[in-house]
Design a protein that fits this description.
The chain is of the alpha/beta class. It has one domain: Rossmann fold (3-Layer(aba) Sandwich), CATH 3.40.50. It contains eight helices and seven strands; from the N terminus they run H-H-H-E-H-E-H-E-E-H-E-H-H-E-E. Strands 3-2-1-4-5-7-6 form a seven-stranded mixed beta sheet, sandwiched between helices. The chain is globular and about 50 Å long. InterPro entries: Methyltransf_12, SAM-dependent_MTases_sf. This is Methyltransferase type 12 domain-containing protein.
């Protein structure tokens, strides 16, 4: 994302992708178990800890702050220019902390967070960039607190007769870091290989061309 979402593209992101973002973020919010998060202060005697990886311009963090205003939230993104936009959007929200970070399998251990730190981890519109999604998910799983939830959302690969190969070729021409788009079943299998248990999953329309999937998972724990 560091090559495409910078400069003017980063500054115009929220407006350029407004319809797409509205639909994908609505699907993401609907998949989060908010009731479980709201119960955390009574159960753990502390506020929920949230991490949004590849947070972009901070739109999801903004919505989560409105739903859970006392939560301690963190956002990381690879693109400094997207983080600048997030800082502007979230300037009046002191409970949100932003940092630069890269989602690669061999770099997960370098993220500045303690194991089992987060009650909610979100990752939206990013899965198609990952070169080793299973390794990334294994790393994120180590950051999940007991009974914590991981929310993944991304646009889906379209089946025939949609001309997906041509469409994806065009995507890679304008956004070279695009790696591969996945179907929901493919994403679920990767989650399971990473030691995650799927709690909820669904597909949705994100516009005239785009289709998306979203799922909620937790760590598979020994009985």
């Amino acid at each position: 994302m560091n090559t495409y979402y910078r400069g003017k593209r980063a500054a115009a992101y929220n407006q350029t992708w407004k319809t797409f973002s509205d639909k994908t973020l609505a699907a993401t919010i609907a998949t989060i178990d908010l009731e479980r998060l709201q119960e955390i202060p009574a159960i753990k005697e502390k506020q929920p800890e949230i991490l949004d990886v590849a947070c972009g311009t901070g739109l999801l963090l903004q919505q989560l702050a409105r739903l859970l205003p006392q939560a301690d939230s963190h956002g990381i993104d690879q693109s400094p220019d997207m983080l600048i936009q997030a800082q502007k959007l979230l300037a009046n929200m002191p409970n949100i902390h932003l940092a630069q970070g890269t989602l690669k399998g061999d770099s997960m251990a370098t993220l500045p967070y303690q194991p089992a730190a987060f009650d909610l981890i979100t990752c939206t519109n990013t899965f198609h960039y990952l070169d080793n999604p299973q390794a990334v998910l294994e790393g994120l799983a180590t950051l999940l607190a007991p009974h914590g939830q991981l929310i993944l959302e991304d646009y889906a690969r379209r089946p025939f007769p949609f001309p997906w190969r041509t469409f994806e070729w065009f995507i890679k021409r304008i956004d070279p870091q695009h790696n591969k788009a996945y179907t929901l079943p493919e994403a679920q299998k990767i989650c399971e290989k990473a030691g995650l248990h799927i709690l909820a999953a669904s597909t949705f329309s994100a516009g005239l061309v785009w289709r998306g999937w979203v799922l909620r998972a937790e760590i598979v724990r020994d009985k």
